[in-house]
Amino acid sequence: MKLRFAATALTAAMLLSACTRRNDEFAETISDTIVTEKTTVSVTSAVTTVYETTQTEEQAPQTEIVTEPSAGEIVVEKNSVYDFPDEFYVKLEEIIESYDHFLYYDISLAYYDIETGFSLLINPDKHYYSASVMKAPYMLYIYRLALSGEADLDEKLVYTEDFKREGTGVLKEMEFGTEFTIEELIGYCLEESDNSAFAMLRKKFPEEGYVEYIKSLGVNHTDDAKAFNQPQLCGDTALIFSEAVYSFIEEENPYSENLRYHMTHSRNAMIYGGEGDEVVRKYGWHGGNFHDMAVVYGEKPYLLTIMTNLDMLEIEYREYCIFRDLSKLIAEYSDTLAEADGEGDRIVIQIPRMEVDEMNLPKDPYMLLSVLNMKLRDSYKSFDALCEDMDCDAAEITAAMEKLGYVYDEKVNQFAPIPEETEKPQE
Are residues 284 and 386 in the same domain? Predict the structure, then answer.
């Protein structure tokens, strides 16, 4: 796997992902003498991304068309005042090569250096189900209501059976009739990612007001402003959310420390900062969507979100390691941003994954299980048809799956957990 740079000969350029623009505070890096023009660059076989480029009135853009990369190939669109040193990209390539996940699944990263305005995004045009990440901007919305006198955080709400939700959280184990202040419920949402607490707060503060608040931050993509019914998240939206959290904390208003405390005590820490760095975070996990959104208070504070869609893959230690390795690499180089010639503030990296019909069967048993079920779901009507088409040993695969506790189920055309044996009734 080789890292490939796509050179663009522009006097000044700022690469923007197609999904949305960040708010005005992120965009104030271009002088009034620069005009805007759009240039289309084909970056993958499946997606054409529109980059908004800028240039002086005296010089027209001369953009090189990027040839379609193969799966897993790193394509870097570089045009920035600031950049990491070359060894950063060497180490990034090593990380990508060490995980087959980049070939089989969607993985994105959104980084923003608050001091310089420099951002680096990996696969920014990919949208993910946001899962519980969106609890952070929702709690921020409630804090904003409290600041304006539209919410009383000392008000008590009663936990009833109507609010009981499964999944993450601790309220589901508590007695109905228990009272909680709104501030306590916010804490449960941010620290425990409590679904029952979130249901109570959503009833008290309906989604309509939240949607308007999110739009006011500069989120233009409709699905990214939702609170339920498949809310989405992409790189630019993640930066808007985490920048709003950072700004709220830096205001040092009456609730700044509350938010900071809750988000530094969030469970399931996946993103790492440097040694001794404080990390304000909110994770999300639903199905294969596995994310962490953070503000890292290092020597130079920065925003970092890592998003994945691991589909049917069992999420275990090695999946956490993707977050560990990527975030440690960012932490290692976050203080080394070097200024280069040119103007602009963004680097975009595309790492296409293989399409389902192109996927070879991986050796890792858990990834094998995931890819088998993905192929059976999307491309094959039976396990026999898959084995015949891919010329693989059905008995060998079956044995490997049985070691994991899975067996092929013809009725659902999937490898499913082996049913537990039940005792026969005594005659």
Answer: no
Q: Are residues 255 and 306 in the same domain?
A: yes
Q: What is the pLDDT along the chain (427 residues), one digit of tens a residue?
A: 556 555 432 222 333 333 333 344 433 332 222 222 333 332 232 222 333 333 333 433 333 334 466 776 778 887 788 999 999 999 999 999 999 999 999 999 999 999 999 999 999 989 999 999 999 999 999 999 999 999 999 999 999 999 999 999 999 999 999 999 999 999 999 999 999 999 999 999 999 999 999 999 999 888 999 888 889 999 999 999 999 999 999 999 999 999 999 999 998 889 999 999 999 999 999 989 999 999 999 889 999 999 999 988 888 889 999 999 999 999 999 999 888 766 678 999 999 888 877 778 888 888 899 889 988 998 899 999 999 998 899 999 999 999 989 999 999 999 999 987 644 444 4
Yes or no: say if 211 and 150 are a contact pair by the CB < 8 Å rule. Answer: no
Q: Helices in 251-345 by DSSP H: which ranges? A: 256-264, 317-333
| Domain tally, the chain | 3
Residue 316 and residue 371 in one domain: no
Same domain, residue pair 311 and 352: no
Check whether residue 182 and residue 295 sit in a common domain: yes
Q: Cα–Cα distance between 18 and 77 in angstroms, integer?
A: 14
Q: Are 26 and 239 in contact (CB under 8 A)?
A: yes
Q: Domain range spanning residue 44?
A: 3-99+110-122+347-356
Residue 212 lies in a domain: yes
Tokens 């990440």 label which residue?
133
Question: pTM value?
Answer: 0.79
CA distance 255 to 308: 31
